[in-house]
Amino acid sequence: MDEKQLLKDCLKGDVKAQKHFYEQFAPKMYGVCLRYAKDRSTAEDYLQEAFVKVFTRLKSYRSEGSLEGWVRRVVVNCCLEQLRKSDILKYSIELNYAHQITDTDANISEQIHATQLLEHIRSLPPGFRTVFNLFAIEGYSHKEIAGLLQISEGTSKSQYARARVWLQHKLEKESSIENDRA
Amino acid sequence: MTEHKDRIKDLFKAGLEHYEVTPPPHIWHGIVQQKNHRKTVMWKWSAAAAAALLLLSLGTWFILNQEEYDNYAEKPVEASTESTSVVEAETTKPSESVRFAKEEILADLKQKAADKPKPKTLATVNKTDEKQFTELTPTESTTIEVSALIADESSGVEPIETSADTETAISNTQLLSKYLAELEELSDIHRDLMEARKTDNKWNLAMAYGTNPNFSMPAEEYAIAPERATFEVDDFTNDMAEETGYYAQIESTQHRHPLSFGLLTGLPLSTRLQFESGLVYTRLSTISLTYVMNGWQNEYESNLHYVGIPIGLRFEFLQRRLFSLFISQAAIFEKGIRASNTTTNFQDGVLTSSETTFGEVKGFQLSSLSSIGADLAITKQFSLYAQGGVQFFFLNEKQPYNIRSTRTAWPSMQTGLRYRFK
Fold this sequence. Notes:
Chain A is mainly alpha-helical.
């Protein structure tokens, strides 16, 4: 179905069109939610809440960028909103780790499956995970992240640096186990 | 950043940016149900607001009518314990001050009578009716006195013996009539005062108008920066953030005067203390303008509509016939009922597009208002009042960006028209 026609029908409240719209974007958006949520059940809640928001706000889509990009932005914002509501984010952002892992040269395998990467991301504390997702995968700047999470730019940078070191350590550990097996 | 650091980023971006997983089928059903539920919730909120208003009106009506009924049913007050006889008539107890006034006049009359030879009639009136006189209401006692005098004088029980005595008697009668007239007048004034004070002990209804100062923030204040303001990022501020490089392109932010209108009811707890509550509507309006870039400029206007319930106490520390001075302390619970946000685009100063979206305002706003004011009587029932004070706002982090996001304490000014029920 033509995207413009699909949008028109969705705005009219046509449930069939809305379902079609959902089926078109849901798998990618579920992938996004899985990165921000701590588990699958929470990711499902985020996805449901996000699509309700997408349908409510669909009239404000101005066809300036890609529709998928717009839907993704709404979904990411919704995930952030849910994280803010639960206050997990605030606690985690303020969390100060006494023992920091040293940033060393890594021996990381390039052949890692997406599911494994996802598991590593989900093992991060919520604050680290959110900042890492926004900076590394969504491509937001630290200034933008500061605005979205209502934290300072410096906090965003330090959270990202710590998340990256955390992930690097995990990947190194995984690689060394695989090497030992080999 | 080193090459190594970029590797981590690139690895995760490449692996997860387009990661897809088919969601379980029940999510779609959940979405449909939630969409329908939202519509129902809106109706429920409207119904709850209407029910609260109805209850408030009915409660006020019931209490007012109950008081009116009580007034009708009020039994005659028993005579003072100082009295030697009980007044049978349906009457209220004369006030102490009226009794003192009567006693003063009677003492004066006695003194004048003692200075001159007095006819028995007057002495008889003074001696025999004095007790009854003090026990009756001003009007009744005056009537009895006058009628007693007329009866005594006309009956001629004690015939007047000389013309000098006749003149003295006439002079005394005139003097007494004059004093009685003064007494009548004094009683009327006192009754008015008492009536006015009585109305103070009734419910009152006030139409109130309130405002806080407006506020303008230049670019260097970086108005909506998260470090400088406490607020909940909603869809509108989120869009604004995306379109303005996370607020960096905002040239100025203007907060208009917050405006409040409402109806307040006052329930007297004592002659000086009142419990006050009611329903107040408040509008908060904010306009942010971006810098002009290549002839383009954006304007973001946010209008938030709140309905609040103030609960407080008002203490009149100075009460005069025409005015009173008071202090008051109130807690105000506000719920945002609607957010109306408009984005307007200009090119070379000419409006090119404008879009308004409506949304809900989540959470509650709590504030504390401490003020001092004056109430000036216009008529017996109506008075004008004005009060000034300081309002502190709490729970701002759950509210969309508004004038209360950057500062929590604001001067407050209120004025209104108060009606005291009879």
